[in-house]
Write a structure and sequence with these properties.
Elements (H helix, E strand, L loop, with lengths): L5 H15 L5 H20 L1 H17 L19 E8 L4 E8 L5 H6 L3 E3 L7 E4 H13 L4 H15 L14 H26 L4 H8 L1 H4 L27 H6 L13 H14 L13 H14 L1
Parallel strand pairs: 1-4
Antiparallel strand pairs: 1-2, 3-4
Helix pairs in contact: 1-2, 6-7
Length: 307
């Protein structure tokens, strides 16, 4: 089913615009912009096929019909004309290079996605990252936001401890994992966006049902008999800080009892009032209404010194 592409196009072209603002020559900016437009159009051309394949892979994985491991990547297509190419497969625990047969009837990223891996390039991908790894990062990020580059660097070190380091087959230098993981996240999040749009179109939900898809515990179906007559069916909390109570901190920092440092403390006022009542104002020069401002200050300072 075709889904809306406005958000996808807007996001991609916003990304292109930000990249072209870097300090490069106009010629370099033009070349980069052209390359990004080509890259975006290539992804857009296979976007529907990618989404259909993602749903099929998700259903089969949930039903347990197939096991999508690295050792099953060499399954051949029914096409008679195929061409094999080495591809780097990156998972949570390891990475490896495998020879995969490709054909002209199925785009390379679609073929790889059917086996549970997201290609980092729409055209002739040489690196692919498993869906489970991307979901693993997304789950951690929801609890502890972290840098994509930092996570990739730590993952690279973990893989090095378990085997060989990530080395480019062309330059024979360590690969930069940040851009690779970032591209996979970009594709994966677009698949999630398409899935949400698809569900809204296929399953017309009322407002409460739509909220129940986000929080089943609050808005989902109730257990029969758990709600007494007259009780509220559901409660929507506008302020989400109810569980952030800090009584010890609040007791030490009661703003109603904190005296601003720029204010004259109450004890000074009480002392001046006491002196005025006990001496009747004798022995001190009263501040006359016609006195200049320096004279008023001097009188006030003399009172403080005596105190």
């Amino acid at each position: 089913m075709e889904v809306g592409e406005d958000s996808w196009t807007e996001t991609v072209y916003q990304f292109i615009w930000e990249q072209t603002q870097k300090s490069k020559s106009k010629e370099a900016q033009s070349q980069y912009r052209t390359a990004m437009i080509v890259w975006t159009n290539e992804w857009k051309n296979i976007r529907t096929d990618m989404f259909d394949t993602y749903l099929r892979h998700k259903r089969l994985r949930d039903e347990g019909d197939i096991f999508l491991g690295i050792e099953h990547l060499n399954e051949r297509c029914k096409c008679t004309s195929t061409k094999s190419r080495d591809v780097a497969f990156i998972d949570r625990d390891n990475h490896c290079y495998e020879s995969v047969p490709f054909c002209n009837c199925i785009p390379d990223p679609v073929r790889l996605l059917a086996r549970g891996f997201i290609a980092v390039s729409p055209d002739t991908p040489k690196t692919t990252i498993s869906i489970s790894l991307v979901q693993f990062f997304e789950t951690i990020w929801e609890s502890v936001p972290m840098s994509v580059s930092g996570f990739a660097e730590g993952l690279w070190r973990w893989h090095t401890l378990r085997g060989e380091p990530h080395i480019s087959q062309i330059t024979h230098r360590p690969r930069n994992g940040g851009p690779l993981l970032r591209q996979a996240l970009f594709v994966f999040r677009d698949l999630l966006l398409q899935e949400a749009q698809f569900n809204r179109e296929v399953l017309p939900l009322d407002p409460v049902e739509e909220l129940s898809t986000k929080c089943p515990a609050c808005f989902g179906p109730r257990v029969e008999g758990d709600l007494q007559a007259g009780d509220s069916n559901y409660i929507l909390a506008v302020d989400g800080n109810f569980s952030h109570s800090r009584p010890s901190t609040a007791a030490k920092n009661d703003f109603a009892k904190i005296w601003p440092p720029s204010f004259l403390h109450k004890s000074y006022i009480e002392y001046a009032e006491h002196e005025e009542n006990t001496t009747g104002g004798k022995g001190h020069k009263a501040v006359a209404e016609g006195d200049s401002f320096p004279q008023k200050i001097n009188t006030f300072v003399s009172l403080l010194r005596e105190w």
